[in-house]
Amino acid sequence: MPARKKIALIGAGNIGGELALLAARRELGDVVLLDIPDKEGLAKGKALDIVQTGACDGFDARVTGTSSYSDAAGADVVIVTAGVPRKPGMSRDDLLTINLKIIRAVAEGVKANAPDAFVIVISNPLDVMVYELKRITGFPRERVVGMAGVLDSSRMQAFIAQAAGVSVREVRTLVLGGHGDTMVPCLSYCTINGVPVGQILPKDKLDAIVDRTRNGGGEIVKLMGTSAYYAPAAAAIAMTESYLRDQKRMLACAAYLDGEYGFKDLYMGVPTVIGGRGVERVVEIELSSEERAMLDKSAAAVRELIEASRKL
Ligand code: APR
Fold first, then answer.
1. 180 lines ligand 1 (CB under 6 A)
2. CA–CA separation, 243 vs 241, rounded Å?
3. Cys-Cys crosslink for 179: which of 25, 43, 108, 126, Cβ 3.0 to 4.6 Å?
4. From ligand 1's centre to the CA of 270, what distance in Å?
5. What is the mean pLDDT of residues 60-71?
């Protein structure tokens, strides 16, 4: 009998719980929710709650909670949300010191227990966290990726759909660069069913949407007192599904750059193809001179944070 795929979620908080529910609902595999010993009850409780929704929703997936990495052994996919989220007034970069310690411990656990997994990192500051996880696990770049671009692009898609009064399904956006204030929403690649968005919305509206996209996470933190979880989870599940079902979707993800776009030894948001071999390709596209300048600035900001992390 073919075995189901195994998905280990490291961090059973707001995003971890939503990831577990979406993965189970889509029957992507059996789910292990892992958190620290103090939160083992939370992980087990959420797992039980989700299993019990299976009866109403009609899905078959084993969902379990734990604080032991041995339960994540042999996972096909690992999604990392372990860490502290933002509070109002904080930037993602403010989380560096505390979340760096956490990602280092997680990386050791993943390396020892799930050496063949495809790993998606969500913890912030994202580009540094994913860089650190790759450094410690030594996994190839095809198997370590950061979730940011899909989320930032989704936010921009939603804003454009609302402004233009069209279905969000018709809107295409691409947000590149680091997952922070310097991210690069690429208007030159933004279309409504292939029609350049500049033909449909005026420049001042588009500029406001670019700004709102950059602050999309902060807008929610300010409202809720903690960071978003539905859209971040949905974005990571789209990446997971593309990997497990070899869909080869072209998605903006934080990928390890080894010369692409002129950057080396850096993680940053770029268009990638996610398929059965993981990050199968980094796609290099033309950028306007303004977008190129913004990407350079964003890369410099990510590099600065990586340098800071080396001293911690
Ligand atoms: N191992 C496993 N889990 C851990 C560890 C660890 N070493 N350290 C902390 N955690 C757990 C916490 O106990 C908590 O349950 O990570 C969970 C994080 O959940 P939330 O606090 O609800 O945060 P969430 O909203 O899910 O965001 C997680 O993703 O988007 C980013 O900025 C966000 O860095 C944050 C992360």
1. no
2. 5
3. 126
4. 25
5. 97
